[in-house]
């Protein structure tokens, strides 16, 4: 009987954790829309190190939250003022197995370090519009030459 109770408690804890994850996403998305995107958190192995999550635009920041985390604070914050898109590419090798087929990878540089983000092709347009949109008197466009970019 103790084994059955242990299994029941384990299932209850697992269900509670799932409910907390969904509630966290609802709290983050409450005051605005979110987009699905992955961020490459490590470059130790080629094609690996991608972490799924969702982003939220707040003013001049893109706040990225890990999908499977209990933290209410973003894992990474990208500032529009410091972010420059260097190039865009399609997933290669192992990346094709871990991402949906219509996703695009953007290699960006920021004040802190280079960062790679992956998002749906339809989301890239909105992201680039947000990146280029700036108040009057702000710096020049944040896009590098687009000659080597694959067709969108």
Overview of this protein structure:
The structure is a single chain. This protein is about 30% helix and about 30% strand. It is of the alpha+beta class. A seven-stranded antiparallel β-sheet has the order 4-3-2-1-7-6-5, covered by helices on one side. The chain is globular, with a radius of gyration of 18 Å. The model has no long low-confidence stretch (mean pLDDT about 80).
List keywords for this structure.
152 residues; alpha+beta; seven-stranded antiparallel beta sheet; 30% strand
**What is the percent of helical residues?**
25-40%
* DSSP strand tally: 7
| Mean pLDDT over the full residue set | 82
How do the SSEs run, as a string of H and E? HEEEEEHEEH
Q: Rg, please?
A: 18 Å
Largest sheet: 7 strands, antiparallel
The class by helix and strand makeup works out as alpha+beta
Task: Note poorly predicted spans.
Answer: none
Shape annotation: globular
The share of residues in extended strands comes to 25-35%
Q: Please give the count of helices.
A: 3
- Arrangement of strands in the largest sheet: 4-3-2-1-7-6-5
**End-to-end separation:** 59 Å
